[in-house]
Amino acid sequence: MAPKLLLGLLAPILSLRMSKAKEDAPATRFNAPGDFIIGGMFAFHSKVQYLTVDGKPQFPACYSFYLIGYLQHLAMRFAIEEINNSTSLLPGIRLGYEVHDTCNNEAVATKAALAFLSRDPENDNAAQCDYANAKPRVIAVVGPSSSSLSMLVTRILNFLSIPELPIFFQVSFGSSSSYLSDRQTFPSFFRTIPSDSRQADAIVQLLSKFNWNWVAALATDNLYGRQALEIFTQEALLKDICVAYEAILPDGLNPSEQNAKLIDIADRLENSHINATVVFASPEDAEALLRAVVATRITRRVWIASECWSASPSVALIPGISNIGTLFGIAIKSGAMPGFAEYVQNLLAQPRPGRTTEEEVNEQCPECGSLTYANFSRAIQNSRFYTMFNAYKAVYAIGHALHQLLHCDTASRTCDADREVYPWQLLEEIARVNFTVESEPVYFTETGDPPTGYDLILWDWIPPKNHTFGIVGSYDALERQLTVNESKIKWNTEDGKLPVSRCTQECKPGQKRWLRGEHNCCYECEDCPAGSFQDQAHPTECTPCPQHQWSPAQSTKCFNRAVEYLEVTDLLATIMVALTGLTLAQMAAVTGMLLRHHASPAVRYMGRFPASTVVLSSACCCTSCFLFVTKPTDTICKLRQPIFFGSFAVCLAALLGTAVRRSGLEQTLKRRWLRKHHMGFSILLNTAVQGLLCLLWYYWNPPFLEENTELDKILLLQCEDSAFPGFTALLAHVYCLALFCCFCSLVGQGGNRMDRRATKAINFAVVLILIIWTLFVPAYVTSQGKFVALFQIFAGLASILAIFGSCYYPVCYVVLFAPHLNTDDYFSCLPQDPPADKEKPSAAEAKG
Ligand SMILES: *[C@@H]1O[C@H](CO)[C@@H](O)[C@H](O)[C@H]1NC(C)=O
Ligand SMILES: *[C@@H]1O[C@H](CO)[C@@H](O)[C@H](O)[C@H]1NC(C)=O
Ligand SMILES: *[C@@H]1O[C@H](CO)[C@@H](O)[C@H](O)[C@H]1NC(C)=O
Ligand SMILES: *[C@@H]1O[C@H](CO)[C@@H](O)[C@H](O)[C@H]1NC(C)=O
Ligand SMILES: *[C@@H]1O[C@H](CO)[C@@H](O)[C@H](O)[C@H]1NC(C)=O
Ligand SMILES: *[C@@H]1O[C@H](CO)[C@@H](O)[C@H](O)[C@H]1NC(C)=O
Ligand SMILES: CC(=O)N[C@H]1CO[C@H](CO)[C@@H](O)[C@@H]1O
Questions:
Q1: Is Glycoprotein included in the keywords of this UniProt record (predicted)?
Q2: Residue 207 sits in which domain range?
Q3: In the chain, what percentage of residues exceed pLDDT 70?
Q4: Between the CA atoms of 777, 779, 780 and 781, what dihedral angle is there, to the nearest 10 degrees?
Q5: How does DSSP assign 466-484, residue by residue?
Q6: DSSP letter, residue 409
Q7: Residues 137 and 154 in one domain
Q8: Backbone angles phi, psi at 808, to 5 degrees
């Protein structure tokens, strides 16, 4: 139904060709007979005119000869002839061709497409209704170049078949629209040029490479331009490039209106100070635009030309174009076609068969009769930058597919020439081709796209009227990577330096962006504060450093903090350790002396139990000091305070017991057992209190290893003795104990002279201890850092020395230097009673 309707609508077009019926078809300029015919659609002209004759609208008339389109068709013919000559590809098979001019126009292209469908080349009306199993004259179509025409032609060709079974396929060489990658809509479309999405990627990479993020984008008013612009804007946004000005170039206006609009666009570009402009345009539109730009005297900007006009000779020849600045072009990567220049030269020199049928020539191409090689020499010189090679590759792709389909055997040089070939079979085969031509790989992805990349070209103007295109980089379509050789780029700026196109200058490393306005290319910069850093992935944020690291202000990274803790090697700690050692040494000396003279009255007066308790516990307390000057671990943190305060409390408890005895307060105790064992009781009780406080502490809020980061650049390992009920409670208990001891030694009335002296000594020691710890508290509370722990060691050592100094040194003095005083009498001791002493030491002392 639908196909018939379409044919009905197209009948007037079809009848046009019918009137041109000729007798037997000779080889003409645009046709050659062969076993298989390849169709070609090329734009020999770029414009059409809609004329009316006697008020009747006419078929559009083509004008404005398009040299590159003509060369593309020659490249196709060159490839066909090469394949015909070849003994390895399609041996013995002759390919023919049938080429039509599209004039870059939908109506003209439709006519050409329908011509391919007709059974009889001379009768377009012989259209068939069932193409599914038909064998059209043309097995494949190369072209057309423009994306919109490709879509139209693909649709027409597929429309006339059973929808799921495309009968024609095209290998297009110039249609870059990414819509054509849609396999649902264009199942039979293949192409030898990359899709526009790759081009957008390449341009965005180029902009990023040179740090241009404030750009303008202009596009032709057609499907190609609008779509390329859309894809580019999207890709740019992802890479933080702002398209600050966007415009569609005018189309279809009369020349003066069009020029006015272009001048307006150029004025805006001039006033915006945007230094980089991307132009997706057809060569004609680009030429018109750049004429306006040259007229507006915009100079020293950067221009990026899309693949369509990246090497357009007509643009390059605009007078004064060399002032516009630096022009980059994205050109489709192509290869050399050795022999092509000679081929064209020979062809144009030959007397052409087309000349005889002047009518046929004039119908398609009136200019073609007068062409000489000189017209093409410049384009052929630069053929690298045009799409000729892609037409050439397209023909080879068809040739290779046919080669497979006909089961050609290269060794025996035979093909199954009689095989029926349907276009849909060729379609399957072409999806599988994989070969190289002129060392360029040719195959098609699932979307019908090739593995072709781009060349980045730089225009160079040679005064007065010459130019060259230099290749300064390339884009790999598989890797999706643009590489640019910067040393080859000559910047056309005042100072020859890289031009800048940014809304605001880039932030320095270590600064974050403070966005202003809607564009995220416009911002102010702010230093990241110390303790945070700026990473490239989040330009608008400062990321805080992890706990174990630090950073100065305006930093791009964090540094590991130096781990510090109180070590023996620190000077103060060394001094403390030495002091501790000395204390332990004098303790050992005193102990040794006491042991040696254990029988002397002076020593016996002191009593063994309290003396040994004091010595042992203060030794323990001293030893615990070493736990404060090693690398702290959690266990050490948990152990050190209980050991320190526990032993110190035992020491004080023993002192308290002695004080109670010497001061005679013992007698005031009610219970007899208490009177007898008050010393042991005091020790037990105070140990129990310490134990209980520790239990509470460890249950509630135990000490732990702290990684202190308050100081810059340093990770301080220290034990955190949580305030309450831990450290404070232990300290308070010890302090109260000392206070009580002081109280007892003050209140008590000693029995005899010696007892009073002993009480005074204890009192003196305890008062010293109280002073030391009273001073300790404010010093401890107000200080910070690793040396704080030393205060505690110092206080502990001083307390122990105070006890030894006032209680033991006098005894030692008497024993060593005043033997005349070392008598029972002097010490008011009980007469020596060794057996009792040995069996019941505490009882013996109790009597003292
Ligand atoms: C094909 O072969 C003919 C005759 O051998 C030769 O003149 C012609 O140049 C060849 N064409 C190509 C494209 O190789
Ligand atoms: C080809 O070159 C000749 C001589 O330079 C010129 O007169 C003619 O217009 C050119 N043809 C085309 C189509 O450009
Ligand atoms: C094409 O063939 C080459 C080897 O001849 C192979 O490495 C490559 O993967 C093939 N490519 C595809 C798309 O099949
Ligand atoms: C243009 O420059 C190229 C390379 O520098 C040179 O080969 C060519 O002859 C020049 N053409 C003209 C018309 O000056
Ligand atoms: C870049 O171009 C220079 C010549 O202009 C060449 O010497 C150099 O090798 C090229 N570098 C790369 C990476 O291709
Ligand atoms: C463009 O270049 C000019 C001069 O080289 C400079 O003053 C201006 O700031 C640049 N514009 C942008 C947007 O970078
Ligand atoms: C081997 C062969 O058939 N070569 C022919 C290929 O086609 C050209 C014309 O396009 C002929 O000239 C060759 O003879």
A1: yes
A2: 196-334+453-488
A3: 88
A4: 80
A5: EEEEEEEEEEETTTTEEEE
A6: B
A7: yes
A8: -105, -35
What CATH number did the domain enclosing 724 receive? 1.20.1070.10
Which residue, 558, 555, 552, 557, is CA-closest to 508? 555
DSSP-based helix, strand, coil % in the chain, nearest 5: 50, 15, 35
Measuring from atom 8 of ligand 4, which residue has the nearest CA? 466
Same domain, 69 and 105: yes
Quote the pLDDT of residue 835.
36
184, burial (CB in 10 Å: exposed 0-12, middle 13-18, buried 19+): exposed
Cβ atoms 116, 168 nearer than 8 A: yes
Task: Return the best residue to mutate from 63, 364, 372, 373 for the ligand 2 pocket (most ligand atoms within 8 A of CB).
Answer: 372
Q: Which ligand has the nearest atom to the CA of 46? A: 2
Say which residue the tokens 């994306």 belong to: 147
Residue nearest atom 4 of ligand 4, based on CA coordinates: 468
Q: Are residues 578 and 477 in the same domain?
A: no
Q: Decide if 470 contacts 211 (C-beta within 8 A).
A: no
Give the total number of structural domains in the chain.
Answer: 4
Together in a domain, 51 and 122: yes
Instruction: For residue 124, count other CB atoms closer than 10 A to its CB.
Output: 25
Total number of residues shown for the chain: 848
Return the DSSP state at 120: B
Distance 77 CA to ligand 3 centre (A): 27
| Ligand 3 center–CA 436 separation, angstroms | 10
Determine contact, residues 66/44, Cβ cutoff 8 Å. yes
Do residues 678 and 793 share a domain? yes
Residue 459: what pLDDT?
Answer: 92
The alpha carbon of 253 and the centre of ligand 1 are apart by a number of angstroms equal to 48
Which ligand has the shortest distance to the CA of 487? 5
CA of 65 to the centre of ligand 2 (A): 10
Q: What is the pLDDT of residue 494?
A: 83
Which tens digits make up the pLDDT trace of 705-714? 888 887 778 8
* pLDDT tens readout for residues 683-702: 999 999 999 998 888 888 88
Nearest CA to ligand 1 atom 13: 82
Which of ligand 1's atoms lies nearest the C-alpha of 81? 13
Pocket of ligand 5 (CB under 6 A): 485, 487-488
Q: How far is the CA of 492 from the centre of ligand 7 (A)?
A: 50
Ligand 1 mean position to 396 CA, how many Å?
A: 16
Say whether both 576 and 697 belong to one domain: yes
- Residue that has been written with the tokens 């050789």 in this structure: 485
Beta strands 189-191 and 138-142 are unpaired
Q: E strands within 164-224?
A: 170-172, 189-191, 214-219
Residue 59 lies in a domain: yes
Q: What percent of the chain has pLDDT over 90?
A: 27
The CA distance from 623 to 626, in Å, is 6
Choice from 77, 84, 414 to test ligand 7 binding pocket (greatest atom count within 8 A of CB): 84
Task: Check if the beta carbon of residue 233 is closer than 8 Å to that of residue 246.
Answer: yes
Tokens of 152: 């139209």
Amino acid present at 683: I
Count of other CB atoms within 10 angstroms of residue 552: 16
Which residue has the CA at smallest separation from atom 2 of ligand 4? 466
Instruction: Please return the burial class of 834, using the count of CB atoms within 10 Å of its CB with bins 0-12, 13-18 and 19+.
Output: exposed
- pLDDT single digits (tens) 89-111: 999 899 999 998 888 888 888 88
